[in-house]
Amino acid sequence: MNFNNTTEFFEMVADETLTNIDIKRYVQTITDNHNLEFLKSLQFDIGVFISMYREDLEEEITDKDWEEKIEYYKEKGEEMPLLKHTNWERKIKERKGEPYEHLPEFTYSYDKEKIFYPYAMFRIRQLEFYIKNLIKDNENPQPTKPNKPNKSLLFEGKDLNLSERYKIANKVLKIDKEIRKLNAKDLEKHRLLAYILGCDITNARNLMNGTYKSKDRDLTNYFNELGLKE
User: Fold this and answer.
1) Distance between CA atoms of 194 and 181, rounded to whole angstroms?
2) What is the pTM assigned to this prediction?
3) pLDDT tens digit string along 115-173?
4) Does the residue 157 lie in any domain?
5) 179 vs 200: CA distance, rounded Å
6) Number of domains in the chain
């Protein structure tokens, strides 16, 4: 999906007219596959948009709306949600060496977003959080550890291939026999085997038809050790 500019994209996100895949694709494209510098620019842009969007919503709040909300919280016996702010006047006076102790460390204001439009900004806030996490992941990438083979599951020093696993399952559980006697179509039988072995249906069909090609090791000694002699 194409947008004339990023502001239009933000507006469509806020209006909930975009799917998650649309949003993620656009972010990936506009940031050149999550380039950190571009992600930070996008974070700044969405911050500006949210500020302006919030102002537009707050302009529609009337005195009557305030009266109704005050009465609503009073009837519920709850305090109206507040926002906590750093008191910058106190900070500035402290840095200048001027008396500041008489000023509170924090100031508070009513949280208009929670009070009047808690859902109107839900989607755009989701996008803001998504970008924030992309930046975090980009700045602190988690080292990927190479997958080491589980030595306890190796057979003669190597992983069992699909055909060898199938042979073992047949020897121990008679899987092939049990599946074949089911009252089901061949496709469903192949699908069931695929579920059991964790393979695709084509390989499962070839295994049951005896057309699966692989170089299997001789499992006779292993079966003898388990007491699974013919």
Assistant:
1) 17
2) 0.55
3) 999 888 899 999 999 999 999 998 887 676 666 656 666 777 788 888 888 888 888 88
4) yes
5) 16
6) 2
